[in-house]
Amino acid sequence: MDLASYIRDIEDFPKAGVIFKDITPLLSDPKALNKACDVLCGFAGHMHVDKVVGVDSRGFIFAPLLASRLGAGFVPVRKSGKLPHTTISESYELEYGSEILEIHTDAIKKGEKVLVHDDVLATGGTANAVCKLIEKLGGEVVQCNFLIELTFLNGAEKLNGYQIEALLQY
Ligand SMILES: O=P(O)(O)OC[C@H]1O[C@H](OP(=O)(O)OP(=O)(O)O)[C@H](O)[C@@H]1O
Ligand SMILES: Nc1ncnc2[nH]cnc12
C-alpha cells in the first residue's frame, strides 16, 4: 500500500511559500489509517515505553492509538493556556511561526521512558521543545516518531542524539 499517495500538497498554506502536507486523505481511508498506525507502532514495538507524548494538535490523532497498542499512557503537550493544572513551558520556532508549548508537571515521572509522536517533522523546533519539556521533568526520550519528515528542512539536526523514525520522507 502506497501511503504517500494519501498525502495531499496544499500550496501557500498557512503562509505564502509553504507547501503544506495535508494528512486528512490518509486519515479518512480505513485501510491507510490502520496501516499507518501499524508502521508507527512497529517503530517502537521492541522498546519499553511508559508514556507516549502527542503534540497539539495533529499529534493527538495517532499518539493515543500508539499508547493504547504499546501498553503505555498518553500525555498531551499543548499550546499555551490550554492545560488546566500546573505546567512548565517552552517557547520555540516552527516552519511558519513561533509558539509556546506546555506540559503538566505531574504528567511524567522521573526515569519514565517516553515516546514522542507528531504528524510532521519540519524544522524540528516543535519536537525539540517537546523533548526539553520531557527532560525537565526527568523523563527519558526513547524515540521521536513522525508520519512525515520534510528532510529538506533539516529537522533531524535539531534532534541530534535522539532516535528518529518517519513513515514518509520528502
Ligand atoms: O518541525 P516544525 O517546524 O516545528 O513543525 C512541525 C509542527 O508543525 C505542525 O504543527 P502546528 O504548530 O502547525 O499545529 P497543528 O498541529 O495544530 O496544526 C506539525 O503538526 C508539527 O507539530
Ligand atoms: N509543510 C508542512 N506541512 C504540514 N505540517 C507542517 N508543519 C510544519 N511544516 C509543515
TrEMBL record:
Its EC number is 2.4.2.7. Residues 49-148 form the Phosphoribosyltransferase domain. Its main location: cytoplasm. CDD domains: PRTases_typeI. It is found in: Cytoplasm. One of its GO terms (cellular component) is cytoplasm. Signal peptide: none annotated. GO terms for biological process: adenine salvage; AMP salvage; purine ribonucleoside salvage. It catalyses: AMP + diphosphate = 5-phospho-alpha-D-ribose 1-diphosphate + adenine. It is an enzyme of class 2 (transferase). One of its GO terms (molecular function) is adenine phosphoribosyltransferase activity. Pathway: Purine metabolism; AMP biosynthesis via salvage pathway; AMP from adenine: step 1/1. Catalyzes a salvage reaction resulting in the formation of AMP, that is energically less costly than de novo synthesis. Homodimer. NCBIfam families: apt, PRK02304.1-3, PRK02304.1-5. Belongs to the purine/pyrimidine phosphoribosyltransferase family. This is Adenine phosphoribosyltransferase.
